[in-house]
């Protein structure tokens, strides 16, 4: 299996490359998120082993951009972070599995084989909720046939909600997915962008589709819980 390892710790990257090569995989290594994204976008890999905390571009942003471009290569995320919020963030953005450091190499190999066997998972290209239509492939948004122009940040928020339509996306997931892990963006910044987004997608008076779930986050659906 062709595996891309994206890991900035040179020692860890070397160990992963050596171990996975000995298991029969063809392994390529990238040492920062930007290079990893560029290599992953070629589409030649069957699995990506991706660290979360990376220079230039964090792993969560890499996953978000891959899924936004319809690249469905399976992703196994590695991180020293083990909080529930971080795990949920990675999985909601499109990661297929999550392994926290430190880990045994036997467990890593088992996860690599399991995720690799799944292969790319097709996801819907178009999401429709309450007359709102989000074309994830073309990055176009419309409601009741009327095109809606969004800023990059507004679209990034809506895309995350659309990919999880009907489910609650936590505030932490939205902030990390849009602005990157470790960013210093505040809650009121997210709220401000959601208000701007709502004004555009709900301004015609056709009903609310971005629901606030107090204490948790937001959901793209027509009815509040």
Sketch the topology as an H/E string, one letter per element. Answer: EHEHEHEHEHEEEEHEHHEE
Side-by-side strand order of the widest sheet = 2-1-3-4-5
Number of strands: 12
User: Which of globular, elongated, flat, extended, rod-shaped describes the shape?
Assistant: elongated
Largest sheet: 5 strands, parallel
Low-confidence stretches: none
Roughly what is the average pLDDT, rounded to an integer?
Answer: 85
Structural class: alpha/beta
Radius of gyration: 18 Å
Strand content: 15-25%
* Percent of residues in helices: 40-55%
Number of helices: 8
Distance between the termini: 44 Å
What does this entry look like structurally?
The protein is of the alpha/beta class and 225 residues long. Helix content is 40%, strand content 22%. α6 crosses α8 (187-201). The protein is elongated, with a radius of gyration of 18 Å. The chain starts with a strand and ends in a 5-residue tail after the last strand.
Walk me through the topology.
Elements lengths: L1 E5 L3 H13 L3 E5 L2 H8 L6 E5 L7 H10 L6 E5 L4 H10 L3 E4 L4 H14 L7 E4 L2 E4 L4 E4 L2 E3 L3 H12 L4 E3 H9 L7 H15 L8 E4 L3 E4 L5
Parallel strand pairs: 1-2, 1-3, 3-4, 4-5
Antiparallel strand pairs: 6-7, 7-8, 8-9, 10-12, 11-12
Helix pairs in contact: 2-3, 4-7, 6-8
């Amino acid at each position: 299996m062709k595996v891309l390892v994206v890991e900035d710790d040179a020692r860890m990257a070397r160990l992963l490359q050596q171990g996975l090569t000995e298991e029969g995989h063809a392994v390529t290594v990238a040492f920062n998120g930007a290079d990893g994204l560029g290599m992953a976008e070629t589409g030649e890999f069957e699995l990506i082993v991706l660290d979360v905390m990376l220079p230039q571009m964090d792993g969560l942003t890499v996953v978000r951009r891959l899924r936004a471009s319809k690249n469905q290569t399976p992703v196994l995320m590695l991180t020293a972070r083990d909080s529930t919020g971080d795990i949920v963030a990675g999985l909601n953005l499109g990661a297929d599995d999550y392994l926290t450091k430190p880990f045994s190499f036997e467990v890593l190999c088992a996860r690599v084989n399991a995720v690799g066997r799944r292969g790319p998972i097709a996801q819907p290209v178009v999401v429709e909720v309450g007359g709102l239509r989000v074309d994830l492939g073309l990055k176009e948004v419309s409601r009741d046939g009327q095109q809606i122009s969004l800023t990059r940040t507004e679209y990034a928020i809506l895309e995350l909600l659309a990919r999880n339509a009907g489910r609650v996306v936590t505030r932490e997931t939205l902030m990390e997915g849009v602005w990157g892990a470790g960013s210093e963006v505040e809650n009121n910044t997210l709220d401000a962008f959601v208000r701007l987004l709502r004004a555009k997608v709900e301004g015609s008076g056709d009903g609310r589709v971005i629901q606030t779930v107090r204490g948790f986050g937001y959901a793209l659906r027509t009815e509040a819980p």
